[in-house]
Predict the 3D structure of the following.
Amino acid sequence: MVVIVLIGIMTAIIIPEMKGTFQDALLRTSGRKLIEVFNLANSRAISLHQAQRVRLDRKTNHYNIEKLVNGREPNSPLQDDVPGGQGVIDDRISLDLRKPKPEPSEDSNQEDTSDRGPELESMEGLDAIVFYADGTAEAAEIQLRDKTGLSLALRINPVTARVQILEQDEK
């Protein structure tokens, strides 16, 4: 009887401490999966000398890599069967894609925000990020959010095409 009571007490202590760890792990796993896809698209663009686009469907959370022929739409909607070139992000994770706002003109009186990173705006029509053959990419930020409010942002550096993980505060 004492052992059962001790197990009950330990369970009551441990379970609240573990709250959110599954959601956090799911969020981070989804982020790592997207980083792998972006890295794959970047290396394919460089090695094939052809722009690659990662298309993200925010409604179904599907993603796929497409090659762009002369910077235009591909003839077929899907890339040839590249391992990891297409898949699905868990449906408990929502995606929000943002691109940098246009730069203000030189003569406007704007405060310097260079230390905070680029100002981003949500793009309703944005559904793809292009990686170019010279190793650069479109600047973008992907915000991953789970149903409990945990969020994680992935920022793509346009010069190096590297992905930076940004920790987000719960909202």
About this structure: The radius of gyration is 20 Å. The chain has one domain: 23-102+118-167.
